[in-house]
Amino acid sequence: MALLQIAEPGFAAAPHQHRLAIGIDLGTTNSLVASVISGEARVLRDEAGRALLPSVVRYHAAGAQAVGCVAQDMQSADPHNTIVSVKRFMGRRLADIRDAARQPYRFVDTPGMVSLDTAAGVKTPIEVSAEILRALRQRAEAAVDGDLAGAVITVPAYFDDAQRQATKDAARLAGLTVLRLLNEPTAAAIAYGLDNAAQGVFAIYDLGGGTFDISILKLARGVFEVLATSGDAALGGDDFDRAIVDWLCALLGLGDLGAHDMRLVLTEARRAKEALSGKIEVRITAVLSTGRAIDVPLTRKTFANLSRELIARSLKAVRKALRDACLGAAEIDGVVLVGGATRMVAVRDAVRELFRREPLTDLDPEQVVAMGAAMQANVLAGNKAADGEWLLLDVSPLSLGLETMGGLAEKIIPRNSTIPTARAQDFTTFKDGQTALALHVVQGERELVADCRSLARLTLRGIPPMVAGVPRIRVTFQIDADGLLSVTAREQTSGVEAHIEVKPSYGISDQQIAGMLQESCGSAEADMQMRMLREAQVEARRLLDATSAALHEDGDWLLEQVERLHIEAAMHALGEVLETGGADSLKPLKASASALNHATGEFAARRMNASVQRALTGHKLDELAA
Amino acid sequence: MTITLSDSAASHVRKFIDRRGKGVGLRLAVKTSGCSGLAYALEFADDAIPDDLSFESKGVTVFVDPKSLTFLDGTELDFVREGLNEGFKFNNPNVKDKCGCGESFKV
């Protein structure tokens, strides 16, 4: 406890308010929620003491729904209305889902994102995810006993804008304030980096239920730097279940399973897979709807063979990430295993073999992401970190990219990338013999460069003349910890290089301020235009009124018929512009007004003379002087 | 029901009250806020408030309101030096959980 001093009566300092913030690992198979309580990240459990909430939602005909274990138990009985692994459909179109035919759901090809037809009506993946998030929110509110300041939700590093936005929308639907979306491997790194105060280069091997991510992170003095990321958005524990099912079908000649049986066999396959982490051999037993009984032994060795191809896919991504980071497997100081699927013995063996070291499993691989997210949420909510300072990770609030042919923006660093970060993309020339390339760096989410913010321009010169499309120009975007963007363009064959440094205003709040300023500047100009138009209209009306009054008074005796017609024509012209002119009639309005002024110049002079004469007539000079 | 002061705490409280020039004792309270739910308040007492309970310990009168007492019963107030920092510390047997920042506790 902190030491106290005696205060004057009524002046005892109130302790700081703790703002409750949670971290959510919204997983494909299971979801978790954690919070920092008493300075320690803890996974929050339900009344039954379960940390994992199966990411399963079952819709009933009455419009009600069940989430979690209750829903999971009904997977086999009600496969059409029991949605599992909805994360795979987030922000995806029907065409994006490769194995749609194998899913037991009734997909609806709605624009923007696929939807699912359930007993409770058509549901978007956002709505289904929101149900899961709502369940987690309720669990958290019950556990921490208070209002939540906000949540950090983790997403796979590979999630694109649509998928991230869908996740945010789901959170909003569930009544959560999203403090930040955090990449899952980064969350794992936060959990490990802080708890173990580790330094060095780490590989985060995250094999979850539906996604695989490999991230190479550099940890030094509590600062995380992402060296490279890679992965497979459609590789996870579910695929190992399917591999077992495929093997079973081939072994027993089961042919096409119905939705119900498929669910049943998948459930049994998963049970067998999980049991094999502790046992050498398990039996898969099930009774199909046809009455056929399945009872097959599965050994760890057979399973290792079945999963060899899937694990190889993950290792391929690992090698790619290592290549991107320019590191060899031996240069990795530690491998962190994340995700329930890394409990599989075959996976651990493969990882150990590739990196030639024992992977880190100090923290529960299923909880580590939620714990890291909770730590990040705690800091973002404004609570001081209990164990000293650590650098807050920042993200690039808007996508950074380049202008390409046709005025389109090609995103290179997507929005919400944690910084520091570096991304590279290859470009080429458009015309034969092109020796220079102008690069226009833009920031923003819009598709057209015109709608994005221009940050900088640089020119790469000295490209050897080649046929269009042959030169390989690697453009690297790098954002350092200070938010400084540097862009390097390098022609690979000749090695010519161009480099520029840009300082986009980084912090999200700065960004918002800048946006607001820009917006207000934009409308200020429109406002000014409108104001000038209004002023001109008022002036024109005043001019018309004054002229017609003067004509009525003095027109008959001061003007020739021709002169009078000339003035009346100018009045008519101005009146026409005033009547029909729209928002952009400022110029014609001013021109007509000045034409009328010009036409009445002589008339005005004569009127002036006449009135002076009238005033002087019949007076002596002395009277005037007096 | 008792609240006590350590020798060091008692001598410091007496010294502080003397230096302040007025006051009849010390008021201890528990406020419901902070990260773990409860936090201590330590104030000079200029006069007793009806319903307050008072304890005599080593020449110092300690006032506690009945509600706070349920959280403070058995507490010993100590005066300690931690590094460059000196101050009062509650040795409260009722505390089950403290917050990481050390400003509040749970019973």
TrEMBL record, chain A:
GO MF terms, alphabetically ordered: ATP binding; ATP hydrolysis activity; ATP-dependent protein folding chaperone; unfolded protein binding
Keywords per UniProt: ATP-binding, Chaperone, Nucleotide-binding
Gene3D superfamilies according to UniProt: 1.20.1270.10, 3.30.420.40, Actin, Chain A, domain 4 (3.90.640.10), Substrate Binding Domain Of DNAk, Chain A, domain 1 (2.60.34.10)
Coiled-coil regions listed in the entry: none
A single GO BP: iron-sulfur cluster assembly
Pfam name, any one: HSP70
PROSITE patterns in the record: HSP70_1, HSP70_2
Family: Belongs to the heat shock protein 70 family.
Role, per record: Chaperone involved in the maturation of iron-sulfur cluster-containing proteins. Has a low intrinsic ATPase activity which is markedly stimulated by HscB.
Protein name: Chaperone protein HscA homolog
From TrEMBL, chain B:
Domain Core: 1-103
Keyword Glycoprotein applies: no
Coiled-coil blocks: none
GO MF annotation list: 2 iron, 2 sulfur cluster binding; metal ion binding
Cofactor(s) named in the record: Fe cation
Domain of life of the native organism: Bacteria
InterPro entries in the record: ATAP, ATAP_core_dom, Fe-S_cluster_asmbl/transfer, FeS_cluster_insertion_CS, HesB-like_dom_sf, IscA_proteobact
GO CC aspect terms: cytosol
GO terms (BP aspect): iron-sulfur cluster assembly
Presence of keyword Metal-binding: yes
Record-linked Pfam families: Fe-S_biosyn (PF01521)
UniProt KW keywords: Iron, Metal-binding
Entry-linked PANTHER family: IRON-SULFUR CLUSTER ASSEMBLY 1 HOMOLOG, MITOCHONDRIAL, IRON-SULFUR CLUSTER ASSEMBLY PROTEIN
Family: Belongs to the HesB/IscA family.
Protein name (database record): Iron-binding protein IscA
